Amino acid sequence: MITKNGPKPKLGDYRKILEAKAEEVRRSMSAQKAAQVVARLDIPSDEGDLSQQHHEEWIFLNRNSIDMKLLREIADAIHRMDREHYGICLECEEPISAKRLDAVPWARYCVSCQERIATRIAEGESVDEYQEADR
Fold it and tell me: What residues are paired with 95 via a beta bridge?
């Protein structure tokens, strides 16, 4: 099948990669949760232990947020496949290069648009990263 500007990405291969990555992230999240529960002290012996425990919880929550964001990006990529929009930049609507999709199969944007968006974010502009939900 051909997209408006070139051959369609190899969807079956990318779908398998995305599903495997999602499973890897889910397993990692479960392992982190189990490790946190096992390592947690029921009654911290002093303020240092309590501080350490709070710091570890903070790290866990931040890591969990990153993992959840990645899972959403993967789910969005699979959704774009189902709607036949996968591999098309959400900003310029041009095909995303196979090289980029091989490196980041959940990519929403081509390299040029991703760089422009990153610059806008760095300059303090608010960018809606989940605009593709309606596409």
Answer: 88
